[in-house]
Amino acid sequence: MTEAKHGKPSNSMELTLLLAFVFILTFCATSAQEAMEMVVENESNLLTTYIVYVQKPQGEDSLEYDDLHGWYNSLLPESAKTQNQQRLVFSYRNVVSGFAAKLTAEEAKSMQGREEVVSIRAERILSLHTTHSPGFMGLQTGFPLWRGSNYGKGIIVGVLDTGINPSHPSFSGEGMPSPPAKWKGHCEFTKQRTCNNKLIGARSFVKNSSRDLPFDDVGHGTHTASTAAGRFVQGASIFGNANGTAAGMAPFAHLAIYKVCQLDGCYESAIIAGMDAAIEDGVDILSLSLGGPPFEFFEDPIALGAFAAIRNGIFVSCSAGNEGPGYSTLSNEAPWILTVGASSIDRKISASAKLGNGKEFHGESAFQPKDFAPTLLPLVYAGENGNESCAFCAPGSLESVDVQGKVVLCEIGGDIARIDKGQEVKNAGGAAMILMNSEIRGYTTLADPHVLPAAHVSYQAGLEIKEYINSTSAPTATVLFRGTIIGDPFAPVVASFSSRGPNNVSPGILKPDIIGPGLNILAAWPVSLDHAFPPMNMISGTSMSCPHLSGIAALLKNSHPDWSPAAIKSAIMTTAHRANLEGEPILDQWLEPADVFATGSGHVNPLQANDPGLIYDIEPNDYIPYLCGLGYTDKQVGTILQQKVRCSEVKIIPETQLNYPSFSIEMGNTSQSYTRTVTNVGPANSTYVVEVEVPLAVEMSISPATLTFQEVKEKLTYLVEFIPEDESLRGNNTFVQGSIKWVSLSGEYSVSIPISVIFN
Predict the structure, then answer these.
(1) Among all residues, which ones are annotated catalytic?
(2) How far apart, in whole angstroms, are the C-alpha atoms of residue 627 and residue 506?
(3) pTM for the complete prediction?
(4) Contact of 332 with 320, CB cutoff 8 Å
C-alpha cells in the first residue's frame, strides 16, 4: 500500500486547461496581476467530489431511496441545482447518512452552516494493497472443514476491488446452485460478458472506466475474488511453475463484485457507495484489499461501512497494508474489522544466483526460461559508478553502462517496479539479472514474472555478491532455475511489507488481528502472461492475505450461521498458529522471532477455527461506551452508529475494556484491571484452566483461574490485573508481550489471546 493521495486527479483535465489559460493570459492580459486574478476565479469554480455527512430530520429514517435522493438534492446550494449537469454523485442509505456531490470550494463552504450538515470534506483516494495456499492451511479436497461447510455453499462474498473478468473459469456457474432468496443485487455486464450462479452480481461505481462496466482493467480484483471464492480450476500455473489445481478458500460460495478502484486508486465516494450497495444486496462477507493511512473512525469510509455491515450481521475482512516493516504503519484499524497481515507459504519458485567462486544464493523468479543455459557469464554491479539511478536499474540508466551479455546486479528501491528493472537490463543488452533486497526487506523475496532470466535474492546475499565482485577482476555468475519447491520449514514467515502495529487510532486494540498467505500467491488474472490457459498471475501483498481470510470466514459462516461477525473473528484469532512448520516461533523478514505487532494472534488455522471451544463475542451496541471512551463527540459517535448518542448518559469504558480477543496495554507505574467474557460454543459440562505467558517486568493475576461451563452458549467472565514490576527489569525494551490461554481439561481445546504491553 502506498499512502493515500490527497490531490484532485478527477480534475486533471480542468487543471491542464487552466494552466494553458494562464499561459495565454500572461501574454494577453494588461498585467500579470490581472492574469492571476482570473486564474484564482477559475480555480474557485473547479468541481471536486465532496463527502457530505448529514443528520436526518426526525421521522426521516425510513425514506425510500427516491425520496432520500430528493432530500439530499434539496440540501445542495442553489448554484449547484441550476447547472445542466448532475451534481449529486451518490446517495448513501446503509453505510452513512449522507451523499457525495460535485461542488466548488465556495459551494462546499456555504453548506457547512446548514443545520442538517454534520461535516463536509473533499473525498480522498485510497490505495490497493497490492493455488497452493489452501493445501498449506489444511484445506484439501475431502478435509473436514471444506466438507462440513459445504465448501461455502450458499454464502455470498462481496468483493470491493477493481472489478472482475467474468469469463475466467474460476467464476464458472456450472453446477452452482441459485443464489439465496435474500439476494437483491444485479449484474451490469452486457450479454457478451455476463453473470451466473457463481458470479451473481457485478456493479461498477467507477465512472468512465470500461464504459462504466465492472470489468477488471487492472487484474487485482480478479485475483482477490478468485482467492476468496474461486472454483476448482485444473492446470493452473505461471510459466509452467506452481502447477496444479487452483481453488479459492470457499469454492462453492457465491461472488458479488463491486468495482470501486481503478489504476489511479480507490475513490472514497465509490468505496462508500459500494459498501452501501453490498449491504442492501444481502452479502454475508465483505472483502476489501485496500486502504489508506490511519483515519479517525468517524472519518474513515471503510470503518464506517464496516460498522454498518456488522450491524447487519456481515463479516468484514480488510488488508493491513503494505507499509511494513516499520511500526505503526497499519490501515483498517477499527475493532469491528478483521485486519489481516501477510506471510509466506511453504512453496518457493526457486531461482538461484551462482557465482564464479562456487557460492550459490537461493532466490525466486516465476519466469524460468528453459532455453537459458546456466553457464557462467560476466557479472557487473549496475551501481559500481556510484550512480544511485544505475544501482536501481532505473529506466534509461544503463544506456551508458556496458552490460551487454552480462549478468547485472540491481538493487530494490528507487520507486521502480521490480519487473521494470529487468526490462532496463534487457533493453541495455544484459543477459540476466540478480535483484538484491534493501536492508529492510531482509529475506522476503518475490517470484515475479520477469522479462529475462532473473533471481530475486536477500539483502545478505546481495552484500556477499557485491563483496565477491570487488574481490576479483573478472567476476562471473549465472542463474540456476530449480522450479517449484514445496516444504519450506520456516513457513509461515511474516512478509517484510506487511504493515505493523501498534494501532494508531485506538492503541488499546491490538492490530493486526491475524496473518495469512500473502506472498507469491497464484490466482486468476484477466489475461494470460505466458499464453497459457487458464490465465493466472502470482502477486504479493496484504491484498492477497485478506481474501484468504474472507473465504475462510465464509466457510465458518456456513458451518455456524448463528455466529455473529465478532464470534467468527474470535474463532479465527483464538485458534491461530504461533509456530512455524518446524514448531519454532514464527519469524520475520530478518529470520528473527516476529513480535506481536507483526503477527497479531498468529497465522490462521481454519480447521481449528471451526471448533474453537470458547469465543469472545461483541454486540454492535457494545461499541458505544468504547467509542465514547475514545473521546469522540456525540456527533462523531452518531456518525458511526447512524443514531443519536449522548456519551454523558453512557457508562464509558477504557478502550482496553472492550471484550476483544487480545490485550494491548500502555503501562506506567500503576496497576490496571480489565475483564473478559467468554461464551462456550463447545460441549456442555466443560472445564478450562488458565495458562499465562507473563510479559517481562509485569506481574499478572487472573481470577478465577478455572472456568466451568454447564451449558452450551453459557457466558463466564474473568478478571485480569496487570501489575508493573520494578522499571529496572524492563531493560532496553520499549514493549513486551505475552498471552493468556484457556485449556480444556479434555485436552481438546486451547483458546489463546495475545498481550502487548508498551512501557510509558
Answers:
(1) 161, 220, 543
(2) 10
(3) 0.90
(4) yes
